[in-house]
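Fold it.
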Amino acid sequence: MIEILIVDDHPIVRQGLKQVLAEEPDIRVFADVECAAELMERIGESHVDVVLLDIALPDRNGLDVLKDIKAVYPRLPVLILSMHPEDQYAIRALKAGAAGYINKKSAAEELVKAIRKAVAGGRYVSPTLAEKLAVGVGNDLNKPPHDQLSDREFQVLCMIASGKKYKDIAEELGLSVKTVGTYRLRLMEKMNMSSNVELIHYAIKHGLIE
């Protein structure tokens, strides 16, 4: 039996995932939680085969949680399940150790396929993402400017571009407002930008925000 732990702050999403997985005789949802704190409490209670992890959690960013999980349970497959477009987080999630990245708009069959591949020790990528990765091979010189940012700088970029205030960004990421400002200065310098307006236009052009 494949034991699943779901981490998503939306009860309707968690219920929908449980209904989808209930159709599979060899898959069982061990637990479903709404935040990172609950995840870390429940993950050690039973044998878990796969974690379905949302990027946007109320208390932590999903990429940070992913790194925490892999530090303690390096062999535990974690599938990122998110509403964010693949362009925004998929490659970063895979680099951080995710076993796959699935958009919540994907079909139920794709989710089940990803779970089975993760349990078998593989990594799941959608056909669209696979094509993007293939195109990117040997094309490092043409990578967009945001690819040179650290994960934290990238998070701050997306949050500023989404219209969030520095105070709100600081609270969500567990940082001080001053530190958020420092990350903003770093990413602006790396991307050769001078204003938030430029940043927002860039994010829209490259599909980093919806």
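The mean pLDDT is 88.
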